[in-house]
Specification:
about 300 residues; alpha+beta; six-stranded mixed beta sheet; about 35% helix
């Protein structure tokens, strides 16, 4: 599975710590390519996609759906990502072509593109109403914002690390991340040791560039706590469930009057999917078929 993106899960300190790690280069590259993202937005969207995929892996049921939404006052305007429990994730940026000067040592200035703003996490897990938690962005760097969300909205002390390295030709060189969470009742000694280890841990992109796998990285962080990784890896991919059939339903929902107005204009209709940037064209014949179906229902 070396070329396939994947999520790995594990526990440490006899179940007092749980962890998730993701290798996500292909996923992030697919998103960058589909939306023609600038380097800084590829990094921002890539981090959010990686984080969402791991949070999706925390869900238990096949119909569960997670949405991470950033409403930004920065130039990106918005970032929206959804993930399910099976490693399917998709997302888009409100303004994918933001171009900003790099920070020191050539680092992409994700914070300047994204912050200030608000992060909303929506979990549709089969209850009457979806669960929704909202926090202000603390930095716009994404990982720190998710760490803050876990602490404030879910009362789960967490360390989130996310990284995307963009090559000189604007393609994705590497991407990945991890989430380490403390379970209720974790011993103070373990918390202290973990905090010290995390302070000394290099950035995700630094470790990936050195050829470390996600398993290697989790071992570096949690090896001293008797890390146990689950054998099963979960494949992850950019996956959108849009289709011509779904777009047809959207057109039908406009109603007969609106469809007639489109027919009177005499133009084909092109519908675009925000999440994957796929285009669907409906010609006059298809529009007339939709109109006929609507009239048969009246």
């Amino acid at each position: 599975m070396s070329n396939q993106d994947y999520i790995v899960r594990g526990t440490a300190a006899q179940g007092q710590i749980r962890c998730f790690g993701i290798s996500s280069k292909n996923l992030v590259e697919e998103a960058r390519r589909r939306h023609d993202c600038s380097p800084v937005i590829a990094a921002a969207l890539g981090r959010l996609l990686s984080g969402a995929a791991m949070m999706g892996a925390m869900m238990k049921n096949e119909d569960d759906l997670l949405t991470l939404q950033i409403d930004s006052q920065g130039p990106v305007k918005s970032l929206v990502v959804t993930a399910d429990a099976f490693g399917h994730v998709k997302g888009y940026a409100g303004n994918p072509q933001v171009d900003l000067p790099p920070k020191h040592k050539g680092k992409l200035d994700v914070s300047a593109a994204v912050a200030p703003g608000v992060l909303t996490v929506i979990k549709d897990i089969g209850l009457k109403e979806p669960y929704s938690g909202q926090v202000q962005l603390v930095s716009g760097e994404i990982a720190e914002d998710l760490t803050y969300y876990f602490a404030v909205s879910e009362q789960t002390p967490s360390a989130v690390s996310l990284g995307v390295l963009v090559d000189t030709d604007c393609t994705i060189s590497c991407a990945g991340g991890f989430i380490v969470q403390l379970m209720p009742g974790t011993e103070d000694e373990i918390i202290g040791k973990l905090e010290e280890t995390l302070k000394e841990t290099p950035s995700i992109t630094q470790m990936l560039t050195q050829g470390m796998s996600i398993e290697d990285i989790l071992n570096q962080v949690l090896g001293q706590f008797d890390l146990e990784l689950l054998e099963e890896k979960r494949e992850v991919s950019f996956h959108c469930n849009c289709s011509k059939e779904r777009m047809t339903k959207a057109l039908i929902s406009l109603g007969s009057k609106e469809i007639q107005s489109i027919l009177d204009d005499g133009e084909d209709v092109e519908m675009n999917c925000h999440f994957c940037n796929s285009h669907y064209v409906f010609d006059r014949e298809e529009l007339e078929a939709i109109q006929a179906e609507l009239k048969s229902r009246q």
